[in-house]
Design goal:
mainly alpha; Homeodomain-like domain-containing protein; 4 helices
């Protein structure tokens, strides 16, 4: 996974705007996936929504709305 992210980071800085956009979009999807995994792990570990929201930098309502129904 690390090599994939490193490759995408390099491609996101490419001189070709389309290639850079594709890589940036792929990075965003991967980051969203990783965040969802970490939120799920935090909840399984017993952390409160407020603690998770603080770590992510959003409100408790926002994190619960995004991840609470999964």
């Amino acid at each position: 996974m690390t090599n994939d992210l490193a490759t995408l980071m390099r491609q996101a800085q490419d001189d070709d705007p389309l290639r850079a956009l594709h890589a940036t979009t792929a990075l965003r999807r991967e980051i969203e996936r990783l965040e969802a995994v970490q939120v799920r792990r935090a909840r399984v570990a017993g952390l409160a929504w407020a603690q998770i929201a603080d770590a992510i930098g959003v409100s408790k309502q926002a994190v619960h709305k995004k991840y609470g129904r999964r």
